[in-house]
Amino acid sequence: MSKSLIIIAAAVLLAAAIQGFIARECRSAEEGEEATSGVNPHDWYDSSLCSVCHSEDPPFLQKDPMTTCARCHEANIENHPVTRHPLGQVPKIGIPVSLPLTEEGEMVCYTCHEPHGKTRHPHMLRVEYLKLCASCHKGY
Length: 140
Known about the structure:
About 30% of the residues lie in helices and about 5% in strands. Strands 1-2 form a two-stranded antiparallel ribbon. The protein contains 4 helices and 2 strands, in the order αββααα. The protein has one domain (about 5-135). It is mostly helical.
């Protein structure tokens, strides 16, 4: 792997962190809901937090995947380091089965991010950053 590619990847991740990629506070886009400051709803060991995203009938979400993630990570939707991805749309290229799409075949946040934090990769990525890109973009 070339050093320049590693430097570019590191710069993208740093820029994402600076732009608020890591949510400090979970809040709802709906008026009247109280912020849950300091709570990490991705902690799958604490089942009391499941209701932040999930309905009373898990694994179903309270809202569609994009809205669910944007409730706490709203700044990441428009300022995401890979904004050219077809979020909320069916991708035009083949996506490996290890990167799940919605039942409708749409790319959403959980396509690349493991929402329950069961990963050792930064930013809850499903695989290491550069390998993630190469999973879909052959020759990257």
